[in-house]
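in:
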């Protein structure tokens, strides 16, 4: 290769960087290309000066987007019904990004008492240090939410269903209260995944929805238990720009290979979601009849708190059974000790002991519920709570595993 500044050939090291070959255009394949970049090269100074990082008309710097991340953002908008999407390193980062973008000292944020634990810790820690007050409300009582909104309230977090205890709120009523009071509503839509219900169109007529939907893409969109990523989505252009400016100032970004992993999994999310749901629901029904189980917490079960709200919002899909994720919890009968409950979890052979959900392997976690709640929970029976994330194993194998572990761990307390 000849040096363009002289007639002398380029040194090998230089030629490897400045080689003139470009592949021909027109290559199309089922999977999108992966573009890795921090630096983005401009064709000339005029282009460098004129491009605006705030839209998707061009590229300025890897942190502000590449073809790979833009494609993932747009496909996620198609999934959840949003118009603008931002990618962040995790679901918790999505919660933090929203909080830092819309709250300032003297503001108040309302959080359901059964919300995702690390999000509550963020409010108790960083937000409190920054002068933002947080108040917990009863997720099953919309009037309690309404009563706690004050002139200082700037943000209301919603979660459907509640973390770990799986209560399903009257999401439509909650969103309506926030809209009537002029308060931003932000939903953790990880469980719904854009499949169980439409977060920006809760009534199906385009009039009522949340303002922001955050999603832990770590779960169902990824599907492999190997990616950490989150998204922040809205339909409001002004709100999106507020979020995007904060997103830029915080330096939020995701890696191209992680974006590719989510893009590869997205086409199968509907199939996987239904598979997780079907087996989880069958196991939940079976566990209701087991003598060691005091309560099964699954929104699709009539006995589960908030079932009527789940049915109204999620129960009208084409097969008539509604949509629910592969996640549920049980209250182990209080006659069984914590030691026995731990032995039950340890005795499971097909359930990994691990946090998160939405991957191919089933998971189990015992929880100390008393340390996670600030308000009484009369909807819950006494006992020790254990959460299951159902993977893609067969019902029969998981049922047999649960049966053998219960028989071994609870024999002395039967």
């Amino acid at each position: 290769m000849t040096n363009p500044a002289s007639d002398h050939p380029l040194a090998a090291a230089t030629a490897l960087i400045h080689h003139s070959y470009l592949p021909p255009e027109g290559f199309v394949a089922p999977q999108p290309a992966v573009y890795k970049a921090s630096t983005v090269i401009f064709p000339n100074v005029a282009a460098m000066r004129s491009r605006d990082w705030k839209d998707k008309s061009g590229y300025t710097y890897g942190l502000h987007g590449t073809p790979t991340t833009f494609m993932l953002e747009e496909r996620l908008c198609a999934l959840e019904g949003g118009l603008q999407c931002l990618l962040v390193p995790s679901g918790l980062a999505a919660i933090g990004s929203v909080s830092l973008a819309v709250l300032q000292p003297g503001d108040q944020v309302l959080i359901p008492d059964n919300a995702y634990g690390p999000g509550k810790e963020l409010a108790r820690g960083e937000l409190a240090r920054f002068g933002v007050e947080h108040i917990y409300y009863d997720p099953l009582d919309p009037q309690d939410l309404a009563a706690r909104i004050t002139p200082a309230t700037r943000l209301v977090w919603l979660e459907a269903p509640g973390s770990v205890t799986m209560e399903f709120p009257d999401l439509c009523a909650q969103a309506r209260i926030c809209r009537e009071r002029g308060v931003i509503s932000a939903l953790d839509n990880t469980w719904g995944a854009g499949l169980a219900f439409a977060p920006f169109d809760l009534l199906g007529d385009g009039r009522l929805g949340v303002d922001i939907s955050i999603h832990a893409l770590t779960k169902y969109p990824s599907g492999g238990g190997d990616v950490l990523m989150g998204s922040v989505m809205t339909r409001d252009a002004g709100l999106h720009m507020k979020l995007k400016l904060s997103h830029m100032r915080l330096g939020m970004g995701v890696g191209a290979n992680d974006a590719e992993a989510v893009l590869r999994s997205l086409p199968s999310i509907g199939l996987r979601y239904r598979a997780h749901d079907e087996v989880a629901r069958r196991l939940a029904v079976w566990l209701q009849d087991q003598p060691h189980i005091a309560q099964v917490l699954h929104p699709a079960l009539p006995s589960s708190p908030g079932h009527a709200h789940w049915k109204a919002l999620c129960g009208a899909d084409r097969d008539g059974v509604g949509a629910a994720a592969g996640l549920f919890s049980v209250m182990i009968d209080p006659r069984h000790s914590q030691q026995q409950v731990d032995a039950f979890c340890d005795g499971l052979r097909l359930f990994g002991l691990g946090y998160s959900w939405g991957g191919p392997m089933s998971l189990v976690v015992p929880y100390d519920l008393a340390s996670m709640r600030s308000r009484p929970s009369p909807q819950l029976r006494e006992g020790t709570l254990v959460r299951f994330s159902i993977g893609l194993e067969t019902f029969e194998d998981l049922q047999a595993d649960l049966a053998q572990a219960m028989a071994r761990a609870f024999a002395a307390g039967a």
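note: The mean pLDDT is 94.
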